[in-house]
């Protein structure tokens, strides 16, 4: 027998032994929440969805008549919460026990342990969060406003130059350009940039492996087999992901050091860190932490911003009455002689309502980033064991007619913007998105700037005839994207076209 086959033959044996030990030592004070019936040895491994999971869990709610759902595979427990009430109780009020992340051996194998959103709930994570709060809290995050304005203005110029054929490319470029500039002072020229190419390869290959190679999490040695071993596909992919991840980290860091040496560096998180390092000095731990934060922001923000922006354009192409109402508010408050700015935000309640509704109706992370329990728990008579992965699904009952796009739902009876400003897409409890204020600023500025300058309509053929609007979304990993985005984007008037043209000259 070939020696390299031996580890593979161990898999079913170890799997069976693991299941047997857990069955023999099984002791629990209450039943698990409802869910699909587990099969012998494999549990619910065949039931847990790898695509369109949010829709599947809504179907489970109806099938098992419960908003709290449970599944188990290879000894790993999954709890799905389809109710905001339950999510608030567990992820907010009991956050001390529900602030961990699932232990995923593949994360380390892929070289992604630097990602703050995937870190375990420990002192290392606490240090990262402390520095994030220092830099991204509401007051401090305003330091990045000039970068946001500059990159959104570039986006407006791109829309005017290539309004329809390159819409998805322009959205993606902006979503990447902002975190690269604010974290590194690295100014993106095109999506052919080697840093972007490396990051995309790392994200797509690694994300796909996380979804499809769940067996590696059960038996991590399978992800560390020599790449020459036949059937070691996971090891070969992981090696490529690690290489591309290192390139993604190396390129902007080396570029900023070069620019600093030439006296040409732009302000950014990493620039500030390096300046302190070369002047007063910082600890190696703090330097590594700031580098990790920069990498995480780049990787996480670009994908979710792309998803939210695409949803905004899609919704505006469908709801032109809402678009016209928003434009009327902008014209009344701001006028047509300048672009709106952050100082106008308090005076544009309808734009604020559109922002909230865009983030509500198609959250880029429909299941949020899963939490995990640190200890056993009992909730509503159900047993939730230590280490359970906990995901929050979209709750259709918080808002009436939840599938309808209605910014008006955020106004009270007197016509004033209500206090329902919580964006569930940013997560819960101690693991709420640390960059939520920055993300909110970016998305609001995109919405108000685009509506001030452009009309967004349905896609058109070469003769200007409207085509059907595609409604399809897809989930890539835990992120939901609008696919086949088709819109017509036209300057609202000669004046707005001139406003955008002038930006090119600044």
UniProtKB/TrEMBL annotation:
| Oxidoreductase keyword on record | yes
Q: Which UniProt keywords apply?
A: Heme, Iron, Metal-binding, Monooxygenase, Oxidoreductase, Signal
Query: Which pathway does the UniProt entry assign to this protein?
Result: Secondary metabolite biosynthesis
Q: Does the keyword Oxidoreductase apply?
A: yes
Give one Pfam family: p450
Q: Specify the protein name.
A: Cytochrome P450
Q: Which InterPro entries match?
A: Cyt_P450, Cyt_P450_E_grp-I, Cyt_P450_sf, Cytochrome_P450_fung
User: For heme, which residues are the binding ones?
Assistant: 433
Whose protein is this, by species? Answer: Agrocybe pediades
User: Where does the signal peptide begin and end?
Assistant: 1-23
A GO MF label: iron ion binding
The family classification in the record reads: Belongs to the cytochrome P450 family.
Q: Which cofactor does it need?
A: heme
